[in-house]
Design brief:
Layout (H helix, E strand, L loop, with lengths): L6 E4 L32 E5 L10 H16 L2 E5 L7 H13 L5 E3 L5 H7 L8 E4 L9 E6 L1 H15 L4 E8 L2 H17 L4 E8 L10 H13 L4 E5 L3 H11 L3 E6 L15 E7 L1 H13 L6 E5 L6 E3 L4 H5 L1 H15 L10
């Protein structure tokens, strides 16, 4: 289904998490005043990445942070969805509209918002702009919220190597970009450090500028089926919404899937597959969103690079699945690896 732009302001009452969202688009405005509307109630906004809210992963983690801010800080919130095949001009319009309406901060979910934030942020110097997963664009009113994804992925590699019975595991990346290659690098290193004889099958769903690999579950499902046929019995997908297809295929064969970004064992949209979600590499996107919103409300806006790693529990490995907790050899190996990374006894690669 084609996803269309939504800019929706919601009140203090809690909103239910939707598996997909559509509504009418906002009217384009040429007003780029440098400050929010006078007398407007405090409001924060996020603009979603490819796949939008309901991806059971990256975007939903950002939404959770927005909801926490709404409930804990008693502010209004706004959300804006991406459109299929959109360009930079669409993102510029979206961020401009959110800022013009007085939202502060305005947060772009994903590195694809970097060019748009570079253009829009200088026009609203009194508004804080957050961007997740990017440090290429900087400014006095820009907060770069970034993570050591390779560290969490290393732990996933340790768990995969220990849990695998065939000695073959799989990695599926949504789009072959530097960010996702960090996931691959950490995972492969974790597998090989744990079992040098293990085989890692790696595949990317699409190449830029085609970003369908983050949004189309069928692509993830087909890739996982291929890896399962090749003997993989643990598959880790860093592919946004497309990753849900990989989880479906892996669960269908009774093998282990490893989720990403959110604790996917606890995602409602993946409930039918949860018994086969061994663990998930988590990024504390939720807290990063909440923290930048709170900093603005406290009058001390975050700016510059704010990094979340294992040492601050900014990335990690979920243990929600009871079966995972029973694998004491796996959990012990993961905990040791975590301690060694924090102690800098292990340096995790950021590129394959």
């Amino acid at each position: 289904m084609r996803r269309i732009t939504r800019i929706a302001t919601v009140g203090i009452a809690s909103a239910a998490l939707a598996l997909s969202a559509t509504a009418c688009g906002g009217k384009k405005s040429s007003d780029t005043s440098s400050s929010p509307s006078a007398g407007a109630a405090a409001s924060a906004a996020i603009a979603y990445d490819i796949g939008g809210r309901g991806d059971q992963s990256f975007n939903d983690a950002a939404f959770a942070g927005l909801e926490k801010a709404k409930n804990d800080l008693k502010i209004k919130t706004a959300e804006a969805e991406p459109t299929d095949g959109e360009g930079e001009a669409d993102k510029v319009q979206r961020l401009t509209e959110l800022a013009r309406k007085g939202n502060n901060p305005v947060i772009g979910v994903g590195f694809s918002y970097a060019p748009a934030i570079k253009k829009v942020a200088p026009k609203f110097p009194k508004t804080t702009f957050g961007i997740i997963d990017d440090t290429s664009v900087t400014g006095e009113n820009i907060a770069n919220l970034v993570f050591n994804e390779e560290q969490g992925s290393y732990l996933a590699g340790v768990a995969a190597a220990k849990a695998s019975k065939t000695g073959t595991v799989g990695f599926i990346g949504g789009v072959e970009v530097p960010l996702i290659k960090k996931f691959e690098a950490g995972f492969t290193q974790g597998v090989k450090d744990t079992n040098p004889n293990a085989k890692v099958l790696s595949q990317y769903l699409t190449q830029p500028p085609n970003f369908d690999g983050f949004s189309k579950p069928d692509l993830g499902k087909a890739a996982a089926q291929g890896q399962l046929d090749a003997g993989a019995d643990v598959i880790y997908a860093a592919a946004g919404l497309a990753g849900s297809g990989a989880i479906e295929a892996t669960a269908g064969k009774g093998k282990w899937a490893i989720g990403v970004d959110s604790d996917q064992y606890n995602q409602a949209g993946l409930a039918k597959y949860k018994e086969h979600i061994l663990t998930s590499v988590t990024k504390d996107v939720s807290d990063s969103v909440f923290n930048v919103i709170k900093s603005v409300q406290d009058g001390k806006p975050q700016t510059g690079e704010i990094r979340y790693g294992l040492d601050k529990d900014g990335v990690g490995l979920a243990d929600s699945n009871p079966e995972y907790k029973k694998m004491t050899d796996v959990t012990a190996a993961v905990e040791k690896a975590k301690a060694d990374i924090i102690a800098k006894k292990i340096t995790v690669k950021t590129a394959p």
